[in-house]
Specification:
With 139 residues, the protein is an alpha+beta fold. It has one domain. It contains five helices and four strands. It has helices at 10-18, 44-61, 90-103, 105-118, 124-138; strands at 21-27, 32-35, 64-69, 75-80. A four-stranded antiparallel β-sheet has the order 2-1-3-4. A hairpin with a 4-residue loop joins strand 1 and strand 2. The protein is globular, with a radius of gyration of 15 Å.
């Protein structure tokens, strides 16, 4: 699945950003991790993996890192920092997000399917078939 590109359609991005549902996040300033209880039914290994991703991200880059769903079921990563944070590394943050997307693509796709089935009530067979077709086209 292609990540949502905010440069292609900024109006649609603004709508998606407004209605995002945060799954989890970590804050390097407060040294805290947050997990949205709406997603308690996720398997424990996925919840642990999300926890690890968030905490390691903030340990490496600093700032605040969140993982969320757009209204259409896309998984998005977001990082922010305080203006006076001289230790925040924006370049490393963007590179690390790309690496997470690459290394965890199967988990990200599974999360997207979970959200679309559970919250958007889409047919799982159609979603899985669509991912299989995309994988075949990528080969």
């Amino acid at each position: 699945m292609e990540p949502f590109d905010m440069n292609e359609n900024s109006e649609e991005y603004a709508v998606q950003d407004k209605y995002r549902i945060v799954i989890c996040g970590a804050n390097a300033y407060d040294k805290k991790y947050y997990f949205n209880k709406k997603f308690d039914k996720l398997p424990s290994n996925i919840k642990e993996e999300l926890h690890i991703i968030c905490v390691l991200f903030t340990e490496e880059c600093g700032g605040i890192f969140t993982i969320s769903f757009t209204p259409f079921g896309h998984v998005e990563f977001d990082t922010r920092h305080e203006e006076d944070d001289l230790f925040y590394d924006e370049i490393s943050a963007r590179l690390l997000i790309k690496e997470i997307r690459r290394k965890k693509s199967e988990m990200i796709d599974a999360l997207s399917i979970y959200f679309r089935v559970t919250f958007l009530h889409q047919n799982p067979a159609d979603l899985i078939e669509g991912y299989e077709e995309e994988e075949a086209a990528d080969r």
